[in-house]
Design a protein that fits this description.
The protein is built from 11 helices and 13 strands. With 453 residues, it is an alpha+beta fold. It has one domain. Helix 6 runs antiparallel to helix 7. It is globular and about 55 Å long.
Length: 453
């Protein structure tokens, strides 16, 4: 099949073909959701880079929620960066088919350096609805870099870890340099149109993040009737309403001189009793990075997942104009990816399978099998393998989220899952980045990510 031309230009802005940002000429640059807006570039302590939801590897009764922030900490410097003492870090949990915050888990740091303490609040119904928040009931606290078990059976870790995200970012930046904030507001032209099968590498190997991780009994995330079932998870960071950074500014002023503001803001302490407003948001990995202009990310970050029209329109525009997909495939992608939350079914046993809840278990097949098997035979393969354990959904530390995302946007994943008719507009060389988590150092015990490198 002749590959359709890759087009990135649009009137006034570039259409982003991006799933993450890496290193450009050995400079820090975004990856997954790393450094995705002018505010998070300048204030890394509020920058959410990844979110994970998966069954505990050690106790099937529990589920692990993890939020990575303050990304791209270089090798050997894992403990040199701390959590922002002026921020609220928050897990939002909608129960059932609900995409409002039915339950919240919040975190707040106090102190600096190796003596920093991080307090946890919840899980409980949030004190406020919408974009503004207040801390709820304090559950306990942990010292920076340590793990503790709270009286309600929750394991809690807060500190530096190896970044578990994996991607060939070097090649990616040749395909779409727009996502490197150093190139804003006038990104350079792409110098490649495909990922490389030979020579692919995990550009993030050796980098660290700060992680907030909790292992929670599934029963603590039940709905109002006490049912342990489907949940929708997304994360935010928020700042006090009197913090000047909590107020949005124009895209033009934010993009001007963005590189000079890199890593310049360290948060000042705020009160637990303050009212906070949302400034950063992340649910699914690689969605806004894939489809949304860099200049629009701040709008999405300050929006509720149920009213984010910017991201929804970006997905449709990207699929139709950049990836050249049919209306049916574009609409199916929108249906799977919006609202922007990771979905999991706590009533299901077995391992995490990214997008399995959204696709009724269909994405639970190994990505290699989905690529190989013709669409008419895919359901027979599913039946022969059996999939009752594949419906947990969520995302674990090894989930091939980039390949699944690339396969959905550029490949035949959506037609093969029966979500839309085949449109024969696949771009084969963009359906995988050919990386694996082989360079990561995952551990058997909580918090399961590798120790800082």
């Amino acid at each position: 099949m002749k590959l359709p031309p890759f087009r990135v230009a649009a009137v006034g802005t570039s259409i982003a073909l991006a799933f993450s940002l890496g290193l450009y000429s050995l400079r820090p640059a975004p990856a997954s959701d790393h450094q995705d807006s002018p505010l998070t570039v300048s204030r890394p302590g509020i920058d959410i880079s990844d979110v994970y939801v998966y069954p505990s590897p050690r106790d099937a009764r529990n589920v692990v929620l993890a939020m990575d922030v303050s990304p791209l900490i270089p090798t050997g410097m894992g403990s040199t960066r701390q959590f922002d003492p002026g921020a609220m870090y928050q897990f939002h949990i909608g129960t059932g088919d609900d995409f409002t915050t039915d339950l919240a888990i919040e975190f707040k740091a106090s102190g600096t350096g190796s003596t920093q303490q991080v307090a946890m609040y919840g899980p409980e119904r949030p004190a406020m609805d919408g974009l503004q928040s207040r801390f709820g009931t304090r559950t306990g606290s942990v010292a920076y870099g340590q793990t503790t078990t709270l009286p309600n059976g929750i394991k809690f870790f807060a500190g530096p870890r190896e970044d578990p995200f994996y991607f060939d970012l070097t090649q990616f930046l040749k395909i779409i340099p727009d996502r490197d904030f150093h190139n804003q507001p006038n990104p350079v032209a792409p110098s490649a149109t495909c990922f490389r099968k030979e020579g692919a590498s995990d550009t993030l190997a050796g980098f660290n993040v700060l992680q907030l991780a909790v292992e929670v009994p599934r029963t603590l995330l039940a709905d109002r009737k006490g049912n342990v079932g489907r949940i929708n998870v997304w994360t935010t960071t928020s700042l006090p309403i009197n913090d000047t950074a909590s107020q949005p500014t124009s895209a033009a002023s934010m993009l001007a001189g963005i590189a000079s503001r890199y890593n310049t803001i360290i948060g000042t302490p705020s009160e637990d009793t303050a009212t906070y407003t949302q400034v950063e948001r992340l649910g699914r990995p690689a969605v806004k990075e894939a489809t949304e202009n860099f200049a629009d990310h701040d709008k999405t970050n300050r929006s509720l997942i149920t009213s984010d029209t910017v991201l929804a329109q970006s997905i449709l525009t990207f699929e139709k104009k950049a990836a050249h997909r049919s209306d049916a495939v574009a609409n199916a992608a929108l249906h799977v990816l919006i609202p922007d939350a990771i979905e999991a079914d706590l009533s299901a046993p077995g391992p995490a399978r990214y997008l399995a809840v959204e696709t009724n278990g269909k994405s639970g097949l190994p990505i290699a099998v989905i690529r190989l098997v013709p669409p008419p035979l895919i359901y027979g393969v599913k039946r022969s393998l059996g999939d009752p354990y594949r419906h947990f959904g969520g995302r674990d530390l090894r989930s091939p989220v980039i390949d699944l995302s690339l396969g959905a946007l550029f490949g035949s994943l959506i037609p093969k899952l029966g979500l839309a008719p085949e449109d024969h507009q696949e771009t084969a060389c963009l359906t995988s980045d050919f990386t694996t988590p082989a360079a990561k150092h995952l551990e058997a015990g909580f918090p399961y990510t590798g120790a800082p490198r």
